[in-house]
Amino acid sequence: MTGTPITQLDLSGFQPLDELAWQDEHGIVLSLHFFDLPPDLPAPLDPVPPLRAALARHTAAAGAGLIDSDVELVDGVPAVRQLVKIRHPQGHGQVFLASCTIPRATCSTVLKLQAPEHGATGFREAVLMDRLGPNDFFVPSPYAPDLTGGLPAHRADDPRYDAEFPGHPLTLARQLMRRLLPTVRLDPRFKAEPGFAVTG
Question: Domain holding 91: CATH number?
């Protein structure tokens, strides 16, 4: 894989779209990106709670919703994993974006999954709202409880319901990211770069 510091990745089940993009049987697109400039993350990676809150606010300001975020090691390098929902740009429903940003001081690499809803949309949400009722369905942002704007947080985004909706794009994106990240290997030169720190 040229054009990215990611030198190894388990691409089982994916077919190539171009040099740095692949698609699976569910229509999920996996892409790799390299940015030769300082990362634009809004806070340091440690401590994690302020970073999560800043990411939630940034995502809401863009009209989307942050479902999940955490910092974890990818091939020994601290990385920011995010799961975001956005309105489908070409119709009804949502697209779920799972990403992992591996930042260094002057550059970063990103692994991204795009999992759009197909066909009848909103089924997962409708089933769970009917079961729980609207008062228990909608919840505050898990990372910024006073947050307003963007796509609202609700219980249908909770991973506890993934087993009930195994073919839903949110379930698939979450499971794929969990499978892919342990298989990532990074170029030693990228790993040797100074670590990420917010400046200014």
Answer: 3.40.1000
